[in-house]
UniProtKB/TrEMBL annotation:
Belongs to the BlaI transcriptional regulatory family. Residues 1-47, 158-182 are annotated as: Disordered. It comes from Streptomyces daliensis. Residues 10-24, 171-182 have a biased composition (Basic and acidic residues). Keywords: DNA-binding, Transcription, Transcription regulation. Residues 158-170 have a biased composition (Gly residues). InterPro entries: BlaI_family, WH-like_DNA-bd_sf, WH_DNA-bd_sf. This is BlaI/MecI/CopY family transcriptional regulator. GO terms for molecular function: DNA binding. The keyword Membrane does not apply.
Length: 182
């Protein structure tokens, strides 16, 4: 009686497909998806491809196609991989897409600061005890960040919002426009 998966070409680890003996490793068509591994066989870290795609997309002044992004990445990723990454970024509201003919063009939804703010908001929204999260965050701020946060909150309360900057100290260390210490 033959033992299951160990003769007849099956894998001994219970997974189906492949030879299971490592002889196909590195051969064309057997190394996995294009772009999954970098030089020296290291897998890309979680979010690394998304960051690379977003970085390339930010270099353009106008919305671009997935093929354009693929080309700028050096061509080591399959077109379908680039589309998948862009679609995931769109689902996370990190990029916008607009239909042009039968395809899409893609553009960043915000600059780096805006994207960081979106990530912070998602983390905050995912927590049950918002007060505890905000308290922990604020108590861990450096004195400079705390001054900036106070100035931003003061400006928002005054109706200034964050759109035009916070009005605090500039790079030269001066106070804000109305003489308040920032």
């Amino acid at each position: 009686m033959a033992s299951s998966g160990q003769d007849g070409g099956g894998r001994s680890d219970g997974r189906s497909g492949g030879r299971g003996d490592g002889r196909n490793a590195g051969r064309a068509g057997h190394a996995g998806h294009a772009g999954e591994r970098r030089a020296h066989g290291r897998r890309r870290g979680q979010g690394e491809l998304e960051a690379q795609v977003l970085s390339v997309l930010r270099t353009s002044r106008e919305p671009e196609t997935a093929a354009w992004v693929q080309n700028r990445l050096g061509g080591d990723l399959a077109y379908t991989t680039v589309v998948t990454i862009l679609t995931r970024l769109h689902a996370k509201q990190i990029v916008h897409r607009t239909r042009v003919g039968r395809s899409y063009v893609w553009s960043p939804a915000a600059d780096e600061a805006g994207l960081a703010a979106q990530r912070m908001r998602r983390v905050l929204d995912s927590e049950a005890d918002r007060d505890a999260v905000l308290t922990s965050f604020v108590s861990s701020l450096s004195p400079e960040d705390e001054r900036l946060m106070r100035a931003l909150l003061r400006d928002a309360a005054d109706g200034g919002g964050a759109a035009g900057g916070y009005g605090g100290e500039g790079a030269d260390g001066r106070e804000d426009a109305d003489g308040r210490e920032a």
